[in-house]
Specification:
By secondary structure, this protein is mainly alpha-helical. 57% of the residues lie in helices and 0% in strands. The longest helix has 23 residues, at 12-34.
């Protein structure tokens, strides 16, 4: 898909945070595959998912569309549909960030602030 704009530079801190969030998302996706179908998510897994979505909301707050991220209800178990929607929303947000700040579709071509000048 052709780009409508040129990528904008990011800091090393933003790159590290993107990578951390992507790793947590990958772990949550793996846990989702291990879970019994139709089982609600509670306990530490729900806490971790809420934390992922809160961290992602802070990370994406200045990005276009970042404030449209799914907000999870506080407390209690989460139904499987809500969990699936949250993980998909997180994946879409990280992909949008990557497209906005990479020079190409390859993982090695981030546009960094140090390289922009």
């Amino acid at each position: 898909m052709p780009r409508l704009h040129s990528p904008t530079p990011i800091s090393r801190r933003q790159l590290r945070e993107h990578d951390r969030l992507a790793d947590v998302l990958e772990d949550m996706r793996f846990a989702q595959k291990l879970r019994q179908p139709g089982r609600a998510v509670g306990g530490m897994e729900a806490v971790l998912l809420r934390r992922l979505m809160a961290d992602l909301a802070r990370f994406m707050s200045r990005e276009p569309g970042g404030r449209a991220l799914l907000r999870l209800p506080a407390g209690g178990p989460l139904d499987p549909e809500t969990v699936a929607a949250a993980l998909l929303d997180a994946e879409i947000a990280l992909t949008a960030f990557k497209r906005a700040h990479q020079d190409s579709e390859e993982d090695c071509c981030w546009v960094m602030l140090e390289d922009a000048f």
